[in-house]
Amino acid sequence: MECADPAGTVGAFLCRAGQHLRAAAIPQPRMEARMLLAHALNTDEAALLREPRQPVAPEAARDFAAMLERRLQGTPMAYLLGSAGFWTLDLETSPDTLIPRADTETLVEAALELPLDREAPLRILDLGTGTGALLLALLSELPRAFGIGVDLVEGAARLAGRNAARNGLAERAAFVTGSWDDALSGQFDLIVSNPPYIETDAIDGLMPEVSRHEPRTALDGGADGLVAYRLLAERLRDRLAPGGHAVLEIGSDQEVSVSGLFRGHGYEVLGCRRDLGGNPRALVLR
Q: Which residues are annotated as part of the binding site for S-adenosyl-L-methionine?
């Protein structure tokens, strides 16, 4: 199909990019084309729709072509755009971290339903913090809380620190590089974690955007997907303050196995909140 707008204009770039994305079976090709071109032009999508015959400068055209090629090869949009929304936050993203997802917001909802004193100086720990999404979302809702995020990857811990500053939360958050709680002492009122929980042999069967581009260490939960939960079941007791709670993300088929594992270590399973798709997602423990 021919593009109606003159060559070299916003409309022509959007038309041809949409055709390429559609041919690659990428959902919502026109929307993705607008997002990429708006990013290349440092403008918003509304401006593109208002002025479809605006010429695209050569430098922006080159940037757009490079991003489009990477998208056609499966690079996630969040990595191309360099940011993603989570809760009420805008978070920087990079291949050092998983991309924040709406399903993980279920953990924030579950934590905020706990009998927490929102005006108290709560202590929060986020293990495997990635972008810092969970910790920062909670700090944004708990005005006197302070939190520590830990990640095995130094680049992820640095990125989470930038996200704290980006969202005005740097004074109440600290991020460190380490393996789980190895570098920590003390106890916390609330512990959250989105640990790796995909079975090793199942990773290559995930969507290519995930399996080929997101960090494998943040996905791989071992042969049965439960390696991280076994470690957390052994360690969280020493990190939880009296009356403290933990909220853990689980896979959609792991409620029974993870609940049983923690009960076997003496924890009380208070429930499991479901995500928007109706799948078990946030396991609540004390």
A: 128-132, 151, 180, 194
Distance between CA 50 and CA 53 in Å, rounded? Answer: 9
User: Does the domain formed by 83-285 have CATH 3.90.550.10?
Assistant: no
**What token pair was written down for 111?**
């934590």
**pLDDT on residue 59:** 95
User: Would you tell me the crossing angle of helices 255-264 and 227-239 to the nearest 10 degrees?
Assistant: 40
Residues 6+ apart with CB under 8 A from 108: 87, 134, 137, 138, 141
Phi, psi at residue 69, to the nearest 5°? Answer: -60, -40
* DSSP 8-state class, residue 201: G
What size, in residues, is the chain? 286
Binding site residue list for substrate: 194-197
Binding site feature residues: 128-132, 151, 180, 194-197
Q: Give residue 7's pLDDT.
A: 82
Report d(CA 11, CA 122) in Å as an integer: 51
Instruction: Spell out the domain ranges in the chain.
Output: 10-73, 83-285
Mean pLDDT by 10 residues, the chain (286 residues): 79 94 93 96 92 93 96 94 96 95 97 93 97 98 97 96 98 96 92 97 92 93 96 95 97 96 96 96 97
DSSP secondary structure of 44-108: -HHHHHH-TTPBPPHHHHHHHHHHHHHHHTT--HHHHHTEEEETTEEEE--TTSPPP-GGGHHHH
Distance CA(33)–CA(52), nearest Å, equals: 13
